[in-house]
Amino acid sequence: MNTPFAITLRVGSSLANKTGAWRTERPVYVDRMPPCNDACPAGENVQRWLYHAEEAGYQEAWRQIMADNPFPAVMGRVCYHPCQTACNRAQLDESVGINAVERFLGDEAIRRGWTVPVTAPPAGTRVLVVGAGPSGLSAAYHLRLRGHEVTVRDAGERAGGMMRYGIPVYRLPREVLDAEVARIEAMGVRLELGHPVTDLAAEMRDGHFDAAFLGIGAQLSHRTYLPAGDSARILDALSVLRTIADGEPPRLGRRVVVYGGGNTAMDVARSARRLGATEALVVYRRTRDRMPAQPSEVAEAEEEGVQMRWLSTIAHAGRGSITVEKMRLDDTGYPQPTGELEELAADSVVLAIGQDVDRSIVDGLAGVEVRDGVVQVGPDMMTGHAGVFAGGDMVPSDRTVTTAIGHGKRAARHIDAWLRGARPARPPRPPLATFDRLNTWYYSDAPATVRPRLEPARRVSTFDEVTGGLGESTALYEARRCLSCGNCFECDNCYGMCPDNAIVKLGPGKRFAIDYDYCKGCGICVAECPAGAIEMVPEPR
Amino acid sequence: MTVQRVKFYQTGSFAVGNRLLDPAQRSTQARMDRANSITSGHRACQGCGEALAARYVLDAASRATDGQLVVVNATGCLEVFSTPYPESAWRVPWLHSLFGNAPAVASGVAAALRARGRTEIRVIGQGGDGGTVDIGFGALSGMFERNDDVLYVCYDNQAYMNTGVQRSGATPPAARTATTPAVGPQPGNTFGQGKSAPLVAMAHEIPYVATATVAGLRDLEAKVFRAMQLRGARYLHVLVPCPLGWGSGTGETIRLGRLAVETGLFPVFEAERGEVVAVTPIRRRLPVEEYLRPQRRYAHLFDPAVRSDVIERLQAMADRNVRRFHLEGKR
Amino acid sequence: MLSQIEGSRAVAEAVARCRPQVICAYPISPQTHIVEALSALVKSGRLTGCEYVNVESEFAAMSVAIGASAAGARAYTATASQGLLYMVEALYNAAGLGLPIVMTVANRAIGAPINIWNDHSDTMSQRDSGWIQLYAESNQDAVDLHVLAFRLAEELSTPVMVCMDGFVLTHAVEPVDLPDPSQVDAFLPALRPRQVLDPAEPVSIGAMVGPEAFTEVRYLAHLTQLRALDRIPVLARELRDVLGRGGTGLVDPYRCEDAETVVVALGSVLGTLKDTVDELRAEGVAVGVLGVTTFRPFPADALREALRRARRVVVLERAFAVGVGGVVSADIAAAMAGTPQRHYTVVAGLGGRPVTRDSLRSMIADAAADQLAPLTFLDLDHDLVRQATGGQP
Lengths: 541, 331, 393
Ligand SMILES: Cc1cc2nc3c(=O)[nH]c(=O)nc-3n(C[C@H](O)[C@H](O)[C@H](O)COP(=O)(O)OP(=O)(O)OC[C@H]3O[C@@H](n4cnc5c(N)ncnc54)[C@H](O)[C@@H]3O)c2cc1C
Ligand SMILES: Cc1ncc(C[n+]2csc(CCOP(=O)(O)OP(=O)(O)O)c2C)c(N)n1
Ligand code: SF4
Ligand code: SF4
Ligand SMILES: [Mg+2]
Known about the structure:
The complex is a heterotrimer of chains A (541), B (331) and C (393). Chain A is of the alpha/beta class and 541 residues long. Chain A has helices at 35-39, 46-54, 58-66, 72-78, 82-86, 98-112, 134-145, 162-165, 174-186, 200-207, 237-245, 263-274, 295-303, 401-420, 456-459, 472-480, 493-497, 524-528; strands at 12-13, 25-29, 126-130, 149-153, 190-192, 211-214, 220-221, 234-236, 255-259, 279-283, 307-309, 312-317, 321-329, 335-345, 348-351, 355-356, 370-371, 374-375, 388-390, 503-505, 512-514, 534-538. In chain A, helix 7 runs parallel beside helix 14. The two termini of chain A are 47 Å apart. By secondary structure, chain B is of the alpha/beta class. Chain B has a single domain (19-325), classed as Thiamin diphosphate (ThDP)-binding fold, Pyr/PP domains (Rossmann fold, 3-Layer(aba) Sandwich). Chain B is 33% helix and 14% strand. Chain B is built from eleven helices and nine strands. In chain B, helix 1 (49-65) packs across helix 7 and helix 3 (102-115) packs parallel to helix 5. The longest helix of chain B is centred in the C-terminal third of the chain and has 18 residues, at 308-325. Chain B is globular and about 60 Å long. Residues 1-5 of chain B have low confidence and may be disordered. Chain C starts with a strand and ends with a helix. Chain C folds into two domains: 2-243, Rossmann fold; 251-389, Rossmann fold, CATH 3.40.50. Chain C is built from 14 helices and 16 strands. In chain C, the strands form three sheets. Chain C has a seven-stranded mixed sheet, sandwiched between helices. A six-stranded mixed sheet of chain C has the order 10-12-11-14-15-16, sandwiched between helices. A two-stranded antiparallel sheet of chain C has the order 1-8. Helices cover 41% and strands 19% of the residues of chain C. At the A-B interface, strand 1, helix 16, helix 17 and helix 18 of A face helix 1, strand 2 and helix 9 of B. Strand 3 of chain B pairs parallel with strand 9 of chain C. Magnesium ion binds at residues 128-130, 157, 159-161, 168 of chain B. Magnesium ion (MG) binds next to helix 4 of chain B.
């Protein structure tokens, strides 16, 4: 008798008992859309690149950005980072400093000379891009990545569009822009500068281009009727900024009035301070909270001594002074004149009340629709004229660099598909990873890092970059503040907390699988996933 | 450029694993080669905290002892759901004798190993709160008092679950069980009864006593490791929410463990030779109500009327714990 | 070599020579001298490789033995009376798990009323616990039976209880021939457990068994015990060869060949009985004695063979199943069912009452005349009973 202990029967393994049969619901892994990704106009997979950055995989992180956006270093300076506005961490303490990390990565790439190889086989197609602003360069980059031959023609002497001629250097040093543009050029994108395109059809025909992307921006300063004396010195913002960018700053005088409430107005006012204006006054018709300028820009302008005058219009401009009229908002929020006038000293007035698109380029192009002053495009960024696509400030847009880049990317995808006669793959849009889906207990307490900034006193005397970058350790810290919303970041909670060992760990980078033979469907993994990357679904019958 | 300069690791040690930490610093449960001392196919209820905690403890002990482990189990859910003939979920040498004798059986195993010169093999006794603080308490005290080389682990789900949720000496006041029903003017378990087994254990001045919860994995594992470094009688009291007995959602197990700590109702501490040497401070203090509400065993405190008088008494218990164990210190 | 020694000490010496590895015990009269002696042997270093565990109860004593045995150690404990009852749950468990534990029970009455003196109430109450029960007639017997018990337990992987009468044997100082350690070693190999708690080969012991196999488990236990009936005489012979003394292991007939009346008994009372039989034989009464050494498993065949020729059987019971009568006699009656034999049950010597030769003589005389009541209480104090019952018989 070999039965163990004579009378206790030998037992087998419980693995024979498939407890999965108990289940009425099953957990499944999902990749939700993190709010940052969702909010990024360029469609960056922010969560994913932060994931790489978290483990100091800076080059991978950078490459992940580059999959969507060829301007990380520029982005890290000028993007208004709607990702951070949307970031779930804001509900915990403060949003992740995505933009700062992006800048770190962009700068790191420039410092280390990282490049992007073109691996796609030549597509045998030629695309003309008009405009070397962010939309045009983005389109060119993405088209090149897909194997197309791309020529970019721009009227200006240097590439960059508003990144070069609008945004002041104290916010975007030109060597940064140059480096990122050069990288695109190095991929084989032909840049033909000083080449205004006037007859698109002819250029396409002559150059044997199979498609065109237009990204000419909104280059014309908006004009408004301003009662002014002959001797009044009235300038427009774009030319002021352009001349500054060209290194020939205009003489604005000691007291400068800027009319308008957008970012351009802030840039002009701040530039004026740097050029020696002792008084820089922004006059705006509505209230502060209705200003289109970014609050951070307004704040920085104020730090630099720029003064604001809300609910005011310029009723008259004369030599050495202007007359402003007080406004009040009516029930619809529209400013109405009050008749209350006041005179203020002013050596010059700069108008920063918007930009218009020069539509002449599409004149005579059959099928192109222009409405509200901008060229209309479909969801595929194609104009009404087959093969002619457009993006950036010249189409309906919130007119930011990032949106322009996003347009360029989207257009490139569709141009590629159009040229190949294929339907573009529609990237899936998973449901949003909302804050309530997170289990924030698991994240360490970590206040946001603050980017170093130049002292206001020094700012008014130089065009040096105002905002500094993060050091490696602070960038790493900031990246690690990411909650990885809606996406597994391999914290092992599911693997560790399953009472039935039904989660199979597949190894670093490979995430997990669920062994439905044993999963009883208790839902602990779902409840304890910090990122909300597991979902309970009814058991399929 | 090294990662080490940054002392912030996203989830730190809150989550089970952390790819940002040095592998040596990660939890046992995060390892692909963890022992899985109790394996799949066991018949514990969905979301059973006891099944989970048993794996946590034994896997950690296995790692600490290089797999040189023998386990003695008291009667109770853990025993019943793990070994219904003809299957066993155990991957460690395991012995079940009776409900009330696990500490003594473990002592016997330890004595045998000593006699056989096999003291590299370590002994763990384990059982539910009933098996530990009630029927097995004499045996436990004897094991402590002799300072036998046993780590005894109590998986405290605060009632006799295996027999259908009856009151034990570890059932908290006001909790409804099958023998302290939610009827009459003072529904649920009576105030002023029950015992703190960890404090009694400390009175034996044994080398090591600690409390933990299934929600604090890293803390629990650290305590198992500490316990396995020591010889002699050691006691680990682990709070394990039981969805069936507590009337909680099957996915709520970890959260309730966490809430028990964060409200102050379950103090987490460590003692050596009868003196408290460390406490786990509360991270985000919460009122007891947060813990009580999700459990149907306390439903009578909220429905049909809110029994603020009773809730206040429970809050006072939590407050006392916070004072007594200094639970609001710095982490 | 014969030495003048107290029974308890002798048993302790014998147990020590069996090289136990874990001894765990809780004191209770009349077992105390055994475990005291063993603790001294361990403490003094005379018995090495053995752990002596001072437990907090008999329940713990048996539990420690269970753990020790399951972990591959030769485990021993001793108890009596209330202590035996206190460990009952673990007793069944040890048997159910098939652990080769050896335990001495210094037989004593069970309270209430509390009584420390000898009878067989304690072990008889555990006759169905699954333990093998061996009853010693003398201290020599007790000593030798322990050696046999370890061998038997380990061979069959089942626990064995050696029952010796409290005080009468445990505290009696008489000449005993202690087995030489080399003799014990020759007879008793080192423990080779069937199954052991070992990380090298993890086993689960003590799983829950439901209706689907519980009967089979019980049946297997029964088979093991039946196998003991075959093995005990073989082992007893082997031990006899080593020691040059000893009984047959199952039953010991004394002058039964032509006996018309056979008195069956267990334990030390057999000595007095044999003296009485010798006297009566001298007077020409055809009477014999049958000593039962192995009570569990019940040696029905051996008994049938030994009692085959007797016309009547008197079972002298040292315990009493209240409300029914004899414990041993019930088993014997069942074994002899179908024979024309007459059966008498005599309850004697409860709670330490002396069983005298005179009483036995008159009992046998009554039996031989078939004038014995089927259930008789030897030397019952009728006055006392009458007082207590207020006149009723
Ligand atoms: C002062 C200022 C500050 C700004 N600051 C920010 C900021 O901080 N962050 C932000 O996101 N956005 C900012 N913006 C907005 C942002 O710069 C624009 O939305 C963005 O540059 C638009 O990109 P685009 O490619 O559509 O056009 P543009 O950048 O305007 O580029 C158009 C290009 O096309 C060329 N071009 C035009 N017509 C022709 C033609 N016929 N032939 C050939 N070439 C032609 C132009 O020379 C120019 O290079 C700012 C804008 C201004 C004016
Ligand atoms: C001596 C004895 N009394 C009662 C029981 C019945 N019984 C078995 S398990 C159990 C409850 C176990 O409770 P606990 O120890 O808290 O473990 P849990 O099941 O809650 O994990 C009881 C009362 C028993 N098996 N043995
Ligand atoms: S926490 Fe991370 S993933 Fe979530 S929104 Fe912020 S940056 Fe994106
Ligand atoms: S009753 Fe409670 S302790 Fe028992 S198996 Fe179910 S959840 Fe676990
Ligand atoms: Mg319990």
